[in-house]
Amino acid sequence: MNTEEIGGLKNEGYVILKNVVTTDWISNLSKELDLSFIKHRKTQIINGNDIITDGVALHVLLDSHVFIEFLQYLIDKGVVEDLRTHFFGSNCILNSFSGLDNLPNQPNFSAVVHRDLRFYSGDFPIMLNCLLMVDDFTIENGGTYLLPYSHLNKRKPSDEEFFQTAIQAVGKKGDMLIFNANVWHSSAPNTTQDHRRAIPITVSKSF
């Protein structure tokens, strides 16, 4: 990450890294991700957990060797070292590796304004969200809502306050949105007829 990107993550609470992942890698990940969605959907239905979970594939890492090889790709690209050096200041570990598809004109389980931590960690660097854009993120297909600077405040904003001041993360396939897990965020509705897929990866302190 360059100085501007490091500053964005520290100050605004998020940064979008451009062209992190090559077209070939996106193609390979896309194929495996679609297979994971089918596999996980069958399990959700069998378990009676089929309400607002379509398009959600949690913990897909062991579904394909491609996902594991992708982690090595991120290490080789220096992404993990950047996170270790410029956010955690120490070693860090993979916390989760999942798949999300913001389906056209359907409710989404993460539409509620939320943080991905169950407590406010303040300025202690406990977890980062790394969202790989497998498809282009646009306003129309539901680029993720983020509230800049909200990692600096323990208080949860009202929905009205959040949506008045939140931004939507937009970018191209292969870009990666990285944000502090203390940032308040929400999914956005996909008003197009196309899928909008992503791979959310969380990286955290070892405990």
Description of the structure:
The chain has 207 residues and is α+β, with helices and mostly antiparallel strands. The protein has five helices and ten strands; from the N terminus they run H-E-H-E-H-H-E-E-E-E-H-E-E-E-E. It has helices at residues 3-11, 23-46, 65-76, 79-88, 159-165; strands spanning 14-17, 56-57, 93-97, 99-101, 127-133, 145-146, 167-168, 176-180, 185-186, 197-204. The strands form two sheets. Strands 1, 2, 3, 4, 5, 8 and 10 form a seven-stranded antiparallel β-sheet that branches. The protein has a three-stranded antiparallel β-sheet with strand order 7-6-9, covered by helices on one side. It is globular.
Number of helices: 5
Rg, Cα atoms, Å: 16 Å
Poorly predicted ranges (pLDDT <50, ≥5 residues)? none
Helix proportion range: 25-40%
What is the H-and-E element order? HEHEHHEEEEHEEEE
- Write down the overall mean pLDDT: 93
- Largest beta-sheet characterization: 7 strands, antiparallel
Q: What is the number of beta strands?
A: 10
Structural class by secondary-structure content: alpha+beta
The percentage of residues in β strands lies in 15-25%
Silhouette: globular
N/C terminus separation: 25 Å
Topology at a glance:
Blueprint: H1 3-11, E1 14-17, H2 23-46, E2 56-57, H3 65-76, H4 79-88, E3 93-97, E4 99-101, E5 127-133, E6 145-146, H5 159-165, E7 167-168, E8 176-180, E9 185-186, E10 197-204
Antiparallel strand pairs: 1-8, 2-4, 3-10, 4-10, 5-8, 5-10, 6-7, 6-9
